[in-house]
Design goal:
The complex is a heterodimer. By secondary structure, chain A is an all-alpha fold. Chain A has a single domain, classed as Transmembrane di-heme cytochromes, Chain C (Fumarate Reductase Cytochrome B subunit, Up-down Bundle), CATH 1.20.950.20. Chain A contains twelve helices and no strands. The radius of gyration of chain A is 22 Å and the shape is elongated. By secondary structure, chain B is an all-alpha fold. A two-stranded antiparallel ribbon of chain B has the order 1-2. In chain B, strand 1 and strand 2 form a beta hairpin. Chain B is globular and about 95 Å long. The chains are: A mainly alpha, B mainly alpha.
């Protein structure tokens, strides 16, 4: 029975999760590009500093600028470690690469086994650190929504179960069951990517451009805002 | 845009998404992965519904054109543009549907260059191309009306009457030539449908379907956009439809009676029942409904009668191109879900284009104006926010586009997950070999009668391992069908769970999987490293035991038998050069369905029994190497 569920989770469900992530993100990118072009099209001021927008996108994509910020330095550093682990381990783990090779026919550089283990442990610790950091900072705590708390926990489950699968003798539960939980939790996370704030993995690339364009209002928008709010008598 | 339009568009986007997924598989993996069609049933739902039905659905264009412009009934001018749009999109859908049907879709342009005037399909292809061009020219003024190309617009308007006449003549040719296509199969098409007058029947029924479709489509658009339906026009059209249906019924019955085939309709056969269902939904019930003046004056009544007509005449096309051929082929055919999805997906996709053109071009001016007013109103609607992320959803048209794209992408993902990427091979489980000295393997198709006793005699009693290369643990001479359990598909013979249980849970992983490599089947220890003694038999064919999947019985038996037969056939001392031929083993007439095979098997069985001294020997006994050799039966000799 368990065997059957594992086969299902490794076959059709994995395909579903990967497709859901890839196509869902593609949809978001296309919508974002469309909205950007629409905002540009109707903006009153069409002179856009494209160079600045691209440079700022790249600056925020690489961690340097983020790490140089003055406030909450420890939190930023933990977040950086967490991101490294969350990207490197799923993509470059030897066991995963063998699955990619089987399913997609692609293979690439793999993490050494020991490094992958330590990176996973570090990632789990970093996730805990992030949760503590979020809880201990007042304004951060007040701004947090339910899924801001849930997502780090959900991200950690595949890492813990993955460690147990790699080292079955340390696992307190039968390894087959742990493997199934590993697969299902990771797939759930993949499906969740386009529907949660995890989508920043693709939308971050254009966020600075959207900000640049989003604040350009079409001519006469003040009048429309007034009409929509039903406050015709007041001044713009 | 009303709520109705939004919901309808959402559904249409979802179906289109599913169809897009199947389309990807269709054009990368071919017809085998997306249809259950075979050489016996090469025409399925796609030909019947998308091509035959689609062409007939588009007949409204020329019928309304003729009524309004040739017979000068001004009342129907209103219906001309929507009808021509339906026809244009219908024909475009047919062309797209054809791409799915054709085995080599990239050769669809061949009829333009390589002329084969003897083929009905040649006529069909040319009519589709010409009529599609004419329809486009007929509809072009709608696109141009509110643009600055006034000169072209006026020229096209002046050409409208000749274009409509051209359209009528090409349509007449084309609707009937689809009937001509079926004229070449008098012994395949059931006599209740086959007639030398098929071309004329197709033409008349196309007029009925075209009129029903115009009524249907007109009432659906007025329901969608919440407009008052033009009852006067609809009841006028239904009067025309009633006339055409009465003519069709009369034509069909006189034709049947003339060819003395009317009796077939009163037999208790599947075809007779199908005939009556089709005729009732297509013509009889709609005709009765249309004849009642009260029904003709009510929007609902006209809509119900017209939609029955649409379904019924579509069924007629599906019957003629598929269902009414089953009696001759004897091959059951029920479309795969992928076929349904593509058929409805093409319709949905073109329905979306229809709604888009209605909303952006002056097809029916009321809808366009209503749409423009709605857009204007949207500017003053308060912004809405997403509950979860608290993000602005954009204005109404943006928000609905977000929903449509979400529906489309979800359907695409769902479709791609569910669509089989391998050819649709049905599981054909193999029964255990029956018989004592003669084994029948692979029932019902591909049955081979294997003289087991004779092989033991020839090869030697100690040579069981040549064929029985692997035993189940604790077994000896395990039958081949235990592992090669399907005729074509692989069987998994390795139980991971069982091994984990027997070897002791989590700590046992390291007994097969090396800790340095990620645990996977490929990198695990070979089965033979533990099982060489208890499971493997001494033989030359299968020397190592490393696969966890057993190939299908056909592949396994071919590999094993052919290898040996080829060697023995070359042996000059044996003098059996025929050993290497297919017919040496494949003797049953297996290619004509189960019935003949069953009969031939019974014949052979009785013959076998006649020549048998001891009938008790033919019991269901598993392959037993200890069985005493019995003399060879003449009917099953291998030479």
């Amino acid at each position: 029975m368990l065997e059957y569920w594992i086969a299902l989770a490794r076959g059709p469900l994995l395909r579903l999760a990967l497709l859901a992530m890839a196509l869902g993100l593609l949809r978001l990118v296309l919508i974002q590009l469309w909205e950007i072009s629409w905002a540009f099209h109707r903006a009153g001021d069409q002179v856009v500093p494209w160079g600045v927008a691209i440079r700022r996108n790249l600056e925020w994509l690489l961690p340097w600028r983020y790490l140089q910020r003055r406030e909450r330095r420890v939190y930023n550093f933990i977040s950086f470690i967490f991101h490294v682990g969350v990207i490197a381990v799923p993509v470059c783990l030897a066991g995963h690469v063998s699955i990619w090779r089987q399913e997609l026919g692609l293979s690439w550089w793999t993490l050494p086994e020991a490094l992958a283990d330590w990176l996973s442990i570090l990632t789990i610790a970093a996730a805990l650190g992030l949760l503590i950091g979020r809880a201990s900072h007042v304004s951060s705590r007040r701004l947090s929504r339910l899924h801001d708390w849930l997502l780090p926990i959900l991200c950690v489950i595949p890492f813990i179960t993955g460690l147990w699968v790699a080292h079955p003798s340390y696992s307190p539960f039968p390894v087959q069951g742990v493997y199934l939980v590993h697969l299902l939790s990771a797939e759930f996370l993949l499906v969740l990517v386009p529907f949660s704030k995890l989508r920043h993995m693709v939308l971050f690339w254009v966020s600075q451009t959207s900000t640049e364009l989003g604040w350009r209002f079409p001519s006469g928008s003040g009048e429309r805002v007034r009409l929509s709010l039903g406050k015709e008598s007041e001044g713009v | 845009m009303t709520r109705r339009v939004q919901i309808t568009k959402g559904i249409l986007w979802f179906i289109s998404g599913l169809a897009a997924a199947v389309t990807i598989v269709r054009f990368t993996r071919g017809l085998g992965a997306t249809t259950v069609l075979s050489d016996t049933t090469p025409w399925g739902l796609w030909v019947g519904f998308d091509v035959m039905g689609g062409v007939a659905l588009a007949a409204g264009g020329f019928v309304i054109g003729a009524i309004a412009h040739v017979f000068k009934r001004e009342r129907y001018h209103h219906a001309v543009r929507p009808a021509i749009l339906t026809a244009l999109l219908g024909y475009a859908a047919v062309a797209v549907g054809l791409l799915y049907d054709l085995g080599l879709p990239w050769n669809i342009w061949h009829p333009i260059i390589f002329w084969n005037p003897h083929s009905p399909l040649f006529e069909v292809a040319w009519c589709v191309m010409l009529y599609l061009t004419v329809l486009f020219l007929e509809f072009l003024p709608v696109f141009l009306e509110r643009t600055r190309f006034t000169k072209l617009y006026r020229t096209l308007l002046r050409l409208q009457l000749p274009l409509i006449i051209l359209g009528i003549s090409i349509s007449t040719l084309h609707q009937s030539s689809l009937g001509t296509l079926l004229l070449i199969m008098p012994f395949r098409l059931h006599p209740l449908w086959y007639s030398p007058h098929l071309p004329e029947l197709f033409f008349v029924s196309a007029i009925c379907l075209g009129l029903s479709m115009v009524i249907f489509e007109s009432s659906v658009t007025s329901w969608l956009y919440e407009r008052k339906p033009n009852i006067r026009m609809l009841s006028g059209l239904s009067r025309f439809a009633a006339g055409a249906m009465a003519f069709y019924l009369g034509f069909r019955f006189i034709d049947l009676a003339h060819h003395h085939k009317l009796g077939l309709a009163f037999q208790n056969t599947f075809e007779a029942r199908l005939f009556w269902v089709e005729l009732a939904t297509s013509a009889i019930i709609p005709l009765i409904l249309f004849l009642i003046p009260k029904v003709r004056k009510s929007h609902t009544g006209v809509f119900i009668a017209a939609s029955m007509g649409v379904v019924g005449f579509l069924l007629n096309r599906v019957d003629a191109s598929g269902l009414a051929q089953v009696w001759a082929t004897g091959a059951d055919y029920f479309p795969a879900w992928t076929e349904f999805v593509v058929s409805f997906g093409i319709v949905s996709f073109f329905a979306l284009i229809y709604l888009f053109i209605q909303e952006h071009f002056p097809v029916e001016k009321e809808i366009l104006d209503e749409e423009a007013k709605w857009q204007q109103r949207q500017l003053f609607v308060l912004p809405r926010f997403d509950r979860l992320t608290r993000v602005w959803l954009g204005d109404q048209s943006f928000a609905s586009r977000r929903v449509y794209s979400l529906l489309f992408v979800s359907a695409l993902i769902l479709g791609l997950t569910l669509t089989p990427w391998e050819p649709l091979v049905e599981a054909s489980p193999v029964t255990r070999a029956r018989g004592g000295k003669v084994l029948r393997v692979g029932y019902p198709i591909g049955t081979v009668e294997f003289p087991h006793a004779e092989h033991i005699k020839r090869i030697g009693e100690d040579q069981c391992g040549v064929c029985h290369h692997l035993h189940k643990p604790g077994d000896l001479g395990t039958p081949c069908t235990e592992c090669h359990a399907d005729l074509y598909l692989e069987t998994q013979i390795f139980s991971h769970v069982r091994h984990i249980d027997r070897l002791g849970g989590n700590a046992a992983c390291a007994r097969c999987h090396t800790p340095e490599k990620p645990p996977a089947a490929a990198s695990a220890a070979k089965c033979s490293s533990c099982h060489e003694k208890d499971m493997m038999a001494k033989n030359e064919v299968v020397t190592s035991f490393e696969h966890t999947a057993a190939p299908g019985l056909r592949a396994a038996a071919h590999k094993l038998c052919i290898r040996c037969h080829r060697e023995k056939a070359k042996d000059p001392e044996l003098k059996k050069p025929d050993l290497f031929r297919c017919a040496t083993c494949h003797r049953s007439p297996v290619n004509h369905g189960d019935v003949i095979l069953e009969a031939s098997l019974k014949d052979q069985e009785s013959e076998t029994l006649k020549g048998e001294k001891d009938p008790v020997a033919i019991e269901e006994t598993p392959v037993a190497p200890e069985e005493p050799p019995v003399t060879m039966d003449h009917t099953l000799a291998t030479d």
